[in-house]
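[Q] Does anyone have a clean structure-token version of this?
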Amino acid sequence: MILSLIKKELLLEFRQKSTIGGVVVYVVGTIFVSALCFKGHLDKPTWNALFWIITLFTSVTISGKSFLKETGGQALYNYLHYSPSQFIIAKTLYNMVFMLALSFITFFFYGFFIKNEVENLSLFILVLTLASTGLAAILSLMSAIASKANGNFAIMSILSFPVLMPLILVVIRVSKQAVDGIEWAGVGLNFIGILAALNVLTIALSFLLFPYLWRD
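[A] Here you go.
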């Protein structure tokens, strides 16, 4: 059932090709304008900060709206055909995969237009993976909560900000180590553990809390 839900989400997404194309154009356009402004000359802290700003806004645009479109007849159909646990897991997994793909697209074009400053690539890819899935999980839950407030996107953004801060702070710290080329032996692996724990905790909270939202 979860796989069929994910398949349904994919079909709906690809029917609206303008949505996917619009996000990719937004990402590439933002990176290109940044490259023109900085003329390719960024120090490493600025490079790192700008990358995560672009990634954050992309994740809010994509994952943040996942539940806001589930209203009216569509919401009733979902309520009658799926259990809340199946629905939230499918939505979260779909958003994670979609956000992960967009993050790597962002990383590719960012390196192409601005220059790839990452020296410890394996560490950065691990952080990017954990950050992308974490952002998707948190924003999926916040979007589900906001959908009960007449689908207000502004409410979702406000709710998400304080919840995202711990994740963003850890991501910036560890990714800076990757950009600086610090070897694995010198990396604070406890921060990697925190990132993984935040992912697990968010998914668990979604699984526990969403049934109460579902009843409303």
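[Q] Thanks! Anything notable?
[A] Helices lie at 2-15, 17-38, 44-63, 72-81, 84-113, 121-147, 153-180, 189-215.
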